[in-house]
């Protein structure tokens, strides 16, 4: 009698009328995604060979670039193939021990194969590395805890922010703040590597990591998922 009473008051436990876990978890997955989608925006990037300077060598899969060894060539540019005019997007670049590079974003109207000046006033927002020093493109020193092997670039178009992080611990490096009025493209400028190995910089195939508020917002749903699996 007690068993029947509990079954009626809690129909999820009645034999033959168990909760549809697959359906519930499907809804749960959707709710988790709703929590995640405004916080994680990993954007795969490939290089656009049509924008590459003549001194650059791009890999066959268009994910890495190096500069030729020709004398009197300082920096050469290439853009990403896809631009952004809203939302938040991020990608990572492996720079290793390469001594000279600029990484960031460039506005669409900048001359794609001409000589560029990596300054916000010229429509380029980047982090610059040259011979062991990091700057914001305007000769202001950017302090880092250690030499960076990989950079995460993060664009928040609507808030007017281009930020850089060390993906090893997601420590913040620098943020440009501006008002964007046209489409922005990933921007890469690489100098001669000298003795550095590898001699190229490369876009990374990256697993999305969750930090801070994201973990806090998703955790209750993951606990709910765990309890549902225990029921079955």
From TrEMBL:
<dbReference type="InterPro" id="IPR050143">
    <property type="entry name" value="TRIM/RBCC"/>
</dbReference>
<dbReference type="Pfam" id="PF13765">
    <property type="entry name" value="PRY"/>
</dbReference>
<dbReference type="InterPro" id="IPR043136">
    <property type="entry name" value="B30.2/SPRY_sf"/>
</dbReference>
<dbReference type="InterPro" id="IPR013320">
    <property type="entry name" value="ConA-like_dom_sf"/>
</dbReference>
<dbReference type="InterPro" id="IPR003877">
    <property type="entry name" value="SPRY_dom"/>
</dbReference>
<dbReference type="InterPro" id="IPR006574">
    <property type="entry name" value="PRY"/>
</dbReference>
<dbReference type="Pfam" id="PF00622">
    <property type="entry name" value="SPRY"/>
</dbReference>
<protein>
    <recommendedName>
        <fullName>B30.2/SPRY domain-containing protein</fullName>
    </recommendedName>
</protein>
<dbReference type="InterPro" id="IPR003879">
    <property type="entry name" value="Butyrophylin_SPRY"/>
</dbReference>
<dbReference type="InterPro" id="IPR001870">
    <property type="entry name" value="B30.2/SPRY"/>
</dbReference>
<feature type="domain" description="B30.2/SPRY">
    <location>
        <begin position="25"/>
        <end position="208"/>
    </location>
</feature>
């Amino acid at each position: 009698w007690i068993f029947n009473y509990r079954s009626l008051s809690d129909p999820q436990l009645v034999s033959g009328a168990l909760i549809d876990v697959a359906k519930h978890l499907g809804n749960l997955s959707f709710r988790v995604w709703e929590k995640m989608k405004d916080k994680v925006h990993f954007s795969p990037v490939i290089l656009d060979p049509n924008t590459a300077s003549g001194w650059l060598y791009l890999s066959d899969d268009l994910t890495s670039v190096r500069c030729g060894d020709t004398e009197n060539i300082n920096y050469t540019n290439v853009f990403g193939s896809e631009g952004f005019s809203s939302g938040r997007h991020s990608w990572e670049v492996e720079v290793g021990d390469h001594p000279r590079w600029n990484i960031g974003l460039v506005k669409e109207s900048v001359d794609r194969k001409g000589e560029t000046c990596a300054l916000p006033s010229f429509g380029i927002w980047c982090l610059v590395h040259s011979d062991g020093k990091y700057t914001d493109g305007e000769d202001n020193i950017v302090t880092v805890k250690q030499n960076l092997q990989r950079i995460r670039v993060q664009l928040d178009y609507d808030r007017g922010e281009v930020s850089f992080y060390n993906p090893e611990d997601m420590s913040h490096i620098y943020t440009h703040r501006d008002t964007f009025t046209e489409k922005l493209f990933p921007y890469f400028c690489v100098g001669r590597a000298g003795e550095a190995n590898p001699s190229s910089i490369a876009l990374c195939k990256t697993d999305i990591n969750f930090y801070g508020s994201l973990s806090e917002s998703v955790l209750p749903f993951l606990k709910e998922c765990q309890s549902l699996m225990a029921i079955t």
